[in-house]
Specification:
Blueprint lengths: L1 H20 L2 E2 L8 E2 L20 H12 L6 E2 L6 E2 L31 H4 L3 E3 L2 E5 L6 E5 L6 E3 L6 E3 L8 E8 L6 E4 L7 E3 L6 E5 L1
Parallel strand pairs: 5-13
Antiparallel strand pairs: 1-2, 3-4, 6-7, 6-10, 8-9, 10-11, 12-13
């Protein structure tokens, strides 16, 4: 009998499992069953797909149409020059083409140069670096000898220190820094240009 009860219990368990799989729940052997409605939770139910955001180009065009109608193109009302469409100002006379716009009311402030730039010292060059036409060696010559006969200290050859005829090659100039008294050598292309001393970073301008 014990075996029969165990078999009956196993059979009831199997029937109960089948009922659960079929959507029916109840206690084994009671003869009463309750239908289970298997619904998907509301949070898991698919909702309407969100609308795609508007394209930036379309959004920009809508704003542009609502705020400012573009210039349709044609002759400028001030100078008569033909201007293509969507222009803001005339390329010839800078007249404002769109009548819905107003000229800028912002005033440009007056330019005030910085004091350290305005007070930049201008120094005359003290001499030249030239190439000897006899031995092709470089010489440093004071500017007081310009247009005079000089002698090369390397080969003792004499020549006239003139730069107009192109016979004497000038490779640079030199002067003394007014801030640190350092002798500075610079290329001829920097004469008249604001430069800085490599020793003290002081600003200066070399002039002929």
């Amino acid at each position: 009998m014990a075996h029969a009860r165990e078999d009956s219990a196993c059979t009831n368990c199997l029937d109960f499992g089948r009922r659960q799989n079929d959507g029916v729940a109840g206690l084994p052997g009671d003869g009463q069953f309750m239908t289970v409605n298997r619904r998907t939770p509301a949070a898991l139910q698919p909702g309407p797909s969100p609308a795609a955001p508007p394209s930036p180009t379309v959004h920009h065009e809508k704003i542009q149409k609502a705020i400012m109608p573009p210039w349709p193109g044609g002759p400028c009302p001030a100078c008569g020059e033909d201007m293509p469409e969507r222009m803001i100002h005339c390329a010839n006379c800078r007249t404002l083409l769109n009548t819905d716009l107003e000229p800028d009311s912002v005033e440009i402030p007056e330019f005030v140069p910085l004091q350290e730039i305005d007070n930049l010292p201008e120094l005359p060059i003290r001499g030249f670096y030239v190439v000897c036409p006899q031995c092709s060696r470089e010489l440093r010559v004071n500017r007081k000898f310009a247009n005079k006969q000089v002698t090369c200290k390397h080969c003792s050859g004499g020549f006239l220190l003139e730069f107009g005829d192109g016979k004497i090659e000038k490779v640079g100039v030199y002067l003394y820094c007014p801030h640190c008294a350092e002798r500075l050598r610079m290329s001829c292309k920097y004469v008249g240009v604001k430069v800085a001393c490599k020793a003290c970073s002081g600003k200066l301008t070399a002039v002929e």
